[in-house]
Predict the 3D structure of the following.
Amino acid sequence: MNLFKMINSSSQGRLYKVVLFSSFCLCAIQLATCHIADIYLDNLLNRCLDGRHHKTKPGPEADLFKQCSPWKDRACCTEKIAKDLHLGETWYRFNYSHCAPMSEQCEKFQRQDLCFYECSPNVGPWLIPQAKTIRNEYFVGVPFCASECNAWWDACKDDYTCVEDWGSGFSWTKSGNQCPENSTCQTFKKMYGSAKNMCEKIWSDSFQVKPDNEPCMRLWFDGNGTNPNEKVAQLKAAEIISASLGGTTRFAVHNILIVIFTLSSLIVPMLL
């Protein structure tokens, strides 16, 4: 009877050690997966567009000038840049009045869009490489609220332009953008035909218009409250990370499993 107890106790001890080692392996895999997800999340949400005037990472500013003020709590632009883009005659040598003097209401929306470009910390999930003198990447397909788009359209539809895509359609000289030869100045209404087409085409598909009841970005919000664009970026980042679990993360976990299985071949026999 005593011998049976000794054998049984010894077996239970070995089994306990094996279970303990297996639990350690599972925890290691879970921690590795979470660590990789955290790295992806930080890269998507805690970064700025790699551009000439952008900060590397978003952070608070004491104040931001006029239309850039909503981003002061967490901005990719500095106070100086926000002020300069309001007061300078042109920005990146871009002339909005390339056909005729732009209306004040339309110019206000163009400047609001520029504040979004320079200051928003929420475009990380939509950034793609783009080698240009003013930046190394750009955002494409950012969901844009239809109400914002319609207001932009109402402000600019009677103004004039000569190209559909302002990101690639102009001819450039040392003085700035020029209408290409054989182009014709026409109203936004004639050039684009609709608010949706204007918002999506004017800056090289940077925006994708969405209904307001879906996650979508805004060019203007109350800077004294929560930035509504934060939630939109978080949802997209979660979607990207979830999809990546079947790719890069799976590859990393596979390598971890190889290490664990190698160790187990050495350690388990010792436990037994």
Notes: The first strand starts at residue 127 and ends at 132.
